[in-house]
Amino acid sequence: MDNEALKEFILQRVPEAELAQGTQYLQVVVPAEKAYTLLSELKSNPQTSFDYLFCVTGVDWPQHMEVVYHLKSTTFNHMVVVKGKISSREKPEIETVCKLWRTAEFHEREIFDLYGIVFKNHPDLRRLLLTDDWVGYPMRKDYDDPVNMIAY
Amino acid sequence: MEETVYKELESEEYFINMGPQHPSTHGVLRLVLSLDGEIIRKVEPHIGYIHRSIEKMCEHDSYQQIVHLTDRMDYLSCHINNEAVCLGVEMGLQLEVPERVKVIRTIIGELTRLSSHQLWWGVMGMDLGAITTFLYGFRDRELITDIFEETCGARLTMNYNIPGGLMFDIHPNFQKRTKDFITYFKKKLPEYDDLLSNNVIFRERTLGIGNLSKEDAISFGVTGPTGRASGFSCDVRKHHPYSAYNKVEFKEILRTEGDCYARYQCRIDEMWESLSIIEQLIDNIPEGPYKAPTKAVIKLPKGEFYQKVETARGEFGVYIISEGQKSPYRLKFRSPGFSNLSALNHMAQGCKIADLVAIMSTLDLVIPDIDR
Amino acid sequence: MKWLYDFSYLTHAIHKGLSERFEPGTVVILEMVMVGVAFMLLFAVLGLVLVYAERKVSAVIQQRLGPMRVGKWGTAQTLADVVKLLLKEPLINKDADRFLFNLAPFVIMIAAFMAIAALPFAKGLHAIDFDIGILYIAAVSSLGVIGILLAGWSSNNKYSLIGAMRSGAQIISYELSVALSLLTIVVLTGSLQLSVIVESQADGWWIFKGHIPAMIAFLIFLIASTAETNRGPFDLAEAESELTAGFHTEYSGLKFAFFFLAEFANMFIVAGIGATVFLGGWMPFHIGTWEGFNAVMDFIPPIVWFFGKVGFMIFLMMWFRWTFPRLRIDQLLTLEWKYLLPINLMNIVLMAFLSLMGWHF
Fold first, then answer.
1. 0.90 exceeded by the pTM?
2. B41 touches chain A (CB under 8 A)
3. Measured distance CA(C264)–CA(C49) in Å, rounded
4. Do chains C and A touch (3 or more CB pairs under 8 A)?
5. Which alpha helices (H) appear in chain B, and where do they start and end?
6. Is the pLDDT of residue B6 over 60?
7. pLDDT, tens digit, for every residue of A95-118?
């Protein structure tokens, strides 16, 4: 499916999706609550069959948080970037995609560890890189660490 | 009566900490094993012992500085990591680098892949108890590091790439030495097969061990030779050619067995392919400048850029989110080792401890690459 | 120089000299002390030489030089290592069973000492010539496993325990093959006494005289004895890439040195048995009626023959170790119970048949 058809496909399922213009890959921003619905549709629909999730990224914007899913289909070789927009920075929550792509388990643990985004229904949501007793989420822009401060 | 007897003989699961200091975790990786006798019930990787938060550091660094940080992740394919960031930045700047740069980057990238696979081969033998392979692998690797040393001044973390091109031009001896190396290594590579690949014990230890199906490989995002051994066609050099890979002929090594031996054979075959790629390019390095002019302070336009390359371990991705500043707003490294490690528990269940070691070494993990 | 060819001249002279000066009881004690000291010295020298040899052999196989700094060609390297091991702090795990932990290295060493006593080094150089020599050695050399099990158990370390358990399973299994392959030759000699076995090879070594079954037995002995000494490719008890160091993970300093020494001593012992039973012990190499050739061979002293053959066997074992990958525990046991043992039993029947028909030389 080319990008135009994909746009059509996505907008049919999630009408409130925002599609970015002139980007490297097709980029879709959806609210966090809709992200799982869209992703599972993209994965399971034989027309799209995005079976390869190659990157999951957490981003901390000033007003909201984002989880970026980079998807590729190994059968059709098309790609799409889905962004789940989480409006709350205080209590960020999004549905896990572990059931769809097993690689998400580690990636989501890492994002939980560094951004504090809670992935609902994740089988084993614990800190991954940092110690279990670490306080705070270091990759957030407002994280302040006076001890191990990076001086510029 | 019978039931009580059964209960008394029942075995109990126990835990072992494999690592953080353990010879076959190849670094500070800790695996918590649940064992039933020698049989593994569950492997739980604990990572982060050398987490340096490179991604956070990148948010404060200029793009030229970021290139140097990537060396410290997968130090065995450092040149390819550098290349990924440089390509990402060049994509953002819409900068066309000279042909000469592309070819040299490809040659050195393939040499890096060769040296990484040589080291892996040595270590793989050592993990299975054949210590001699380690020395053989290093013997040949030494020649590549010598070439690197002559051209870039460093042997391991070379920092040869900069956004826009190369740090400096290749050494006049580079072509000759590389060609000498190729003739030498073509004679030595069959030795690898003699010593390990055709050994009965080695085949017994690896055939049918640690199976990973194609579906699971895709689902776990297992890339590189590990994924290709399961039949997952994931070679970025083929699917999204960068640098000079669209100018050369090479096969994507695919196998379908998905066991340790397939992964092993995949890497061995990949060494042959790398040799052939270098052979095609080494005599055809075009003349021209070795870098495109860039500004001292690189500011990427607002936007998002994702660049993926094929390192010796698999698909390495650099995801740059730029707000138009001199440093990225967010920079994510998609490291191959991280995803490959996540499949370990799936592959190792029901195996013996000795099999886990074989699986670990065919995954070819580099711990700084996982921890970042 | 007569004693070099027959040590009984030397030993009788010593015995006579002592008997003239002391009571018979004292003489026995004195002689026992002398033999003990001699074996201790032999062990010390063996340790030094074999460790050095192992390093050099592995270096040659791995295309490097090995130790070169301490002494000419690095010959004093092992001495330096011994000094280092002696000066190291003996660490004991907090939760270890201290008594068993300290006992284990000695059990292994004692087993090695007991086994070496029955080896005939040269004509007349034989501490105890049991009439059940082979049985005795087979019995005693398997005592070492108790030391390994003790070490693994008392260390209170799971790696050590796994290593010890593996080692227990391995040694007990391979003990069978070692004993059965030796039995194959005993069928021909008709005696378990080592001196008789050596004497019976004056006209040719058993490996040649017993041809096919003897060759098979020798191969099995080589494999099984390598496994019994826990050396690569059967070093599962140590398996540094899996169990860090297996049963001796927690040992350091002198006690570690004991384990290390015992490994080399055991290697020497099995090589000695192999040389004695299959390769004619201290008997020189003779070819039928070639008088001149045989005379030259006879000129080489028996003790040189013995150590030469042992050296050859040890070199073979080192070669294995530095070439092959390690087996897995289930493959190891499969190899023994499904292949070596049945082949061995068939081989004994074949040998008995051969011996009955008189088809050997």
1. no
2. no
3. 10
4. no
5. 2-9, 54-58, 63-71, 78-93, 99-127, 131-152, 174-192, 200-206, 214-219, 224-228, 236-239, 260-282, 336-342, 344-348, 353-363, 367-371
6. no
7. 888 888 888 888 888 888 888 888
